Amino acid sequence: MKIRIKKLPLGKALDKYYCTISVSKRGHLQEFYRINVIKRSALALKCMDEVTSVDIADYRDMRLNTISERTGRSVSASTVRLELALLSSLYNLARIEWGTCSHNPVEHVRKPAASPGRTRRLTSTEERRITRALRPKNSQLLAIFQLALETAMRQGEILSLRWEYVDLHLGIAHLPLTKNGSARDVPLSWKARQVLREFAGPMSGPIFTYTSNGFKSAWRVLMAELEIYDLHFHDLRHEAISRLFELGTLNVMEVAAISGHKSMSMLKRYTHLRATQLVSKLDARRRQAQKLATLFVPYPAEIIESNGRFSVQFSDLEHPAITAGSRDEALLRAASDLLLIQALAARAGKRLPPPGEISVRDPHRVLINPFLQKDGLRG
Q1: d(Cα 265, Cα 267) in Å, to the nearest integer?
Q2: Which of the residues are catalytic?
Q3: What's the CA gap between 232 and 223, in Å, rounded?
Q4: Where are the beta strands (DSSP E) in the chain?
Q5: Contact (CB, 8 A) for 202 and 163
């Protein structure tokens, strides 16, 4: 007996899918946007059983050649892959439960190559500029920024934090529901605990008052004001995870427990950072010396002469300028101060921002060695 196919326009099917399936997902808002994009295409006018793999391929190519109104760039391959995945999910459901099609036309259509994951790192200069800009005018945004770097939590996870789920004594923040649908306990570093103590509130209730859209808007405004380009807030999660690997004290499973990654493959792009840490472990006799060496590293600084006096200002550290009557004396004092800064940080278990880059073409830029001695100065 031949099964009769029910006629249902794809646009109507997408509405039905959203009301019955998407609304129960944590990412339902993203699916709502994708559905509206597909509904504006010629595909939406066809009945589900009339859509062919050629139609799907045409839609794919059309979307890949579309310029996004928001970014001014071509729609990314990842975006198109997600739209095709939604259509495929819709057809699989409709074929079995709705009877509005007999096959899935998306199934054998070639998908766009996956875009490489973002590898944007936050520089120490950017971190310092953001901190300085927020400290006097927006303590809440500053706290969110610092927590992102210390905990590797997602934006939504930070915004949903509640005081009743934070135990500063144990150093744990409990997330009852995360993006992947499971609960997670996030260990809080010393700095993360300090941030929350300074931002202390009531015994219960939300820690932050930002909505998702309000926070995104505030972040975009901040980036525009500071003229920092191509830095998404989600890049801070990448930065935080990279720093966890660079500590050299956590294995992949431990990092995954902190970040909430269920799939180890999602952490593969960070494993290259571990190679430099593994080098020191190959030689057990030099391990401790190499560990100490990573704490006392040179930092770039700017040296300026004015009215016969020389001033040295570290580019990546919150430290007053060092001034002396001669260039050599200014460099020696800067080296002494840097050694003290690093020693105090090591004793307190604090992490200093990594040293930034230095241009050899800039005569005002120097690299300060914390172990600089007088006979090591060059005229």
Answers
A1: 5
A2: 154, 179, 234, 237, 261, 270
A3: 9
A4: 166-167, 172-175, 184-187, 299-306, 309-314, 322-324, 365-368
A5: yes
Alpha carbon distances (Å) from 357 to 322, 362, 378: 20, 12, 21
pLDDT per residue as tens digits for the range 115-132: 777 778 898 899 999 999
Q: Say what the pTM is.
A: 0.61
pLDDT digits (tens, 9 = 90+) for 29-88: 889 999 999 999 999 999 999 999 999 999 999 999 999 887 788 898 999 999 999 999
Question: And the tokens for 214?
Answer: 């309000």
Q: What would the DSSP string read from start to end of 147-212?
A: HHHHH---HHHHHT-BGGGEETTTTEEEESS-TTSS-EEEEPPHHHHHHHHHT---SSSBS----H
Alpha carbons 139 and 151: distance in angstroms, whole number: 18
First to last CA, the chain: 96
CA R_g for the chain: 27
Rounded distance, CA 179 to CA 289, Å? 41
* Under 8 Å between Cβ of 316 and 129: no
Please report the DSSP string for 202-249 in residue order: -SSSBS----HHHHHHHHHHHHHHHT--S--TTHHHHHHHHHHHHTSS
Q: How far apart are CA 59 and CA 150, in angstroms?
A: 42
Alpha-carbon gap, residue 259 to 73, rounded angstroms: 31
